[in-house]
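Changelog note: in this version the structure field was regenerated for every chain. One regenerated record is shown below for reference.
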Amino acid sequence: MEIMTTRWRCVKASARIGTLSLLLLMSTAQAQESPPAPTEDAAARSIVEKADLVRFPGEGFQVDIAITSTQSSGQPSESRRYRVLSKGNSNTVVMITEPASERGQIILMKGRDLWVFMPEVSQPIRLGLSQRLTGQVANGDLARANFASDYNPRIVRSETIGGEEYHVLELTAVDRGVTYQRVVYWVRQKDNAPHKAEFYSLSNRLLKTCRYENYQTMLGRPRPARLVMEDSLRSGEQSVLDYGNMKLRDLPEKVFTKDYLKRLE
């Protein structure tokens, strides 16, 4: 009886070993037959990263921006000028140069934290990226304009516009702290040049549309020198951002500190 029991245990153990071996062999064969391919998310992220580098260089740089906002009647409502110093996607200084009455005000972004410093106020004031800066332009449009770090992208379709092929991507915010909760983004396939973006709220309402226009060679490659932002809630209202005098600039970390701001020129 004991011999039979022992033999039965051996048979069951052998069966278990055989099953495990078969599963292992099947898994190995499947892995060999179908190696992991790049996912569409990885392809989408690569497109967004390259499009970011079309808009702005990856190194530290300086650029002047003139913003003209227009009412629904077609009459200009205000004009403002800024100088932006930026390094990567997490360190930015925005200096107001016009109007003269606001010259000296500086916006500092470190990561997702944003403050405005005003000469007549001793303490900086905390701001939100989605708060309006001027016209249709939010703080984050100037201070944190790249998409790769703030959104999870996916390719939703392709479109032909004016004989050119474009990727259409959906960008979903990584959290609620970014400027917009969802972006639909058109990027030209042949060179990753941004063409258009639609910006949506948390409730999925279309807030505004941005067109990337007037491509000019700046710092060795064609970049959009004009952005046209149209309000989707108030027909006819828009802001035009014109970029110029872009140049590389050595920007050490100390530039992006509260104590250093008064020394900026």
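Spot check on this record: Confidence is low (pLDDT under 50) at residues 1-38. Helices lie at 2-33, 40-55, 139-143.
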